[in-house]
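Side project, low priority. Logging it here so it doesn't get lost.
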Amino acid sequence: MGPVMKFRSLSAVVVFLAGALSALAGTVNILPLKPKEGQIVTIEYKPDAPEEGWIRESSSIHATLFGFSEEAEAPNAIDVRLSKNGSGVWTGTTELTKGIVFTLVKVGNGLIYDTNKGIYWSFLTYGANGSPVRNANLKAAYSCFGMLPTYCRRKEDMQEAVDYLQNEVKQHPRTITARVNLAMLQKALGEKDEKEVEGELREIIRSTPNPATPMEALAISQAYMGVGDQDQSFLVQRNAALRFPRSKVDEQMALQKLSESPNAQSFISKVSSHLEDYPNTFAKQNLLDMVVTTAGQQRDVTLLIPFAKRIKDLPASVCHSIANYLGAVDSLRPEALALVERGLVAAKDQSLRPVYAGPAEWNEEQRMVSSQLLYVKGAILRAMGQKKEALAALEKSIDVGARETDKGTYEAYVKLLQESGEGKKAVGVAETAIRNGAATAGLYQSYREMRRADGKDSASIEKDLAALRVNARRMASTKLAKDMLNQTGIAGTFTTPEGAPVNIGDWKGKVVIIDYWATWCGPCRSSFPAVQKLYERYRSNPNVVFAIVNVWERDKDRQKIVKDFLSKNTNLTFPVYLDATDAVVGKFGVTGIPTKFYLGKDGRIQFKEVGYLPEEQFLEEATNKIEALLDQELP
């Protein structure tokens, strides 16, 4: 079931833009220890015991290197193939490209990556004098902010960022961007008081009347903001935008104007123009996603048709999102099918790969998107009464998706096989789905019906299901390691119904399930019986915390509303909290309820669920997630 949506203004959506896996941990060595431009760099990877399994199942292993240059906002990703030597160490070599000042490294097979428990491995580029080149430590500091693309988003570590910035300022004192960021960060961390930082920022502003680069201009603009002079901050950006057309500072000004859109149609039109003016923008995927979300929230998916026609290099994932929306409207199905075909072509177009995505990982993603596109195609063709063509599309979706096939594809295929009189084949497909951990409640129901029709009794069917689920849990744990979001934890305080404060940070070291809900939300209430069963499953485990958090109530006396609800539902014994001012739920970026977040022991957000699933499916998937997080070790 879908969530109850809370709509946001376009300006609120654009503010997000303007601001804008793993538990594995082997060992990586980079040689030489102080690599220079043009040198051959050797990557050595020795997996720990837990990694041996996924490596054995991999046809090839590679290191993905994310190289940061001085001015480019996004890193450039390359894959370096690794080969196993007689000592069990995987090695590969590559030349350190000119202009790269800092590099992040992870090792994997396209689907699963060892990211050193989210920290990644890294190295600076050194100059002839034996010291890091200019901006090497600055880019390293940026990598610690937790703001990079998901492909290379390392854990946030502000203290390490301070260390890098201090090194940059010490070795290259004229690096304005590093000086501004260091001052602002030390203030935020309480290492320096406001007056001291203001003095430093004013000195930087005084000594830099004419920023030499777009990045320097943004830093000086930030410095003016730091001393409370918003007008001058704007003037610096505006003048720099005129001096450096089509630069990052110019684009920042253009992005801010998106918030001035009076309606959805205007916003989508402005985004189209922005993508034409800045075809290589770092914000491209965010902008595309926001257009689809905006049209969905306005319940006018027809806005997406001219948008899709105007954007020539539409990624396969966005073709899928738009086709999914259009396919639900009878009269728009031809346009949806055309977008499916366009997406299948885009998935093979290497020119659409973002520079910050490693080739192997991007190719695997495109394979999975292709499977999802074929699923949408099958669903549309089935709705149009073209069963034969629908069966072919769904079968191909499963073939392309392999173990990563969407659960809905299996359910739709099994039901269509049943309708087509191919019961024996349907049973086989259903068993494959269950073994692969890809069964939905609907598929379980179909499987039980088919087995009963074959003369099996309920006890035998459940025994067979239990045997199939053993492999499903093993498959799920591998998939979940890949699906972990690894997003920075969010600070905040909830209160109990009695008013006692509870800080999210106090739960660090435990697996935490946060479920946002409201008393008026029908889907939230409908999900509670399953949530209660999940809670009962883990209530005696001291390492698992449940926080069912009330938000968005429409009455001022929230405590009374929640207490009245609980008094009428005494069967619900899970811990309930209140987000009294809705401040925390806003930080989590929630737009619809119910929405659940699963936090790992380190406090990072690893899984997110929007809406609610049928009980059997929810309990199975939630249990797999919790068990995967319980198995994680803290770094």
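Brief comment: The longest strand covers residues 61-69.
Revisit when time allows.
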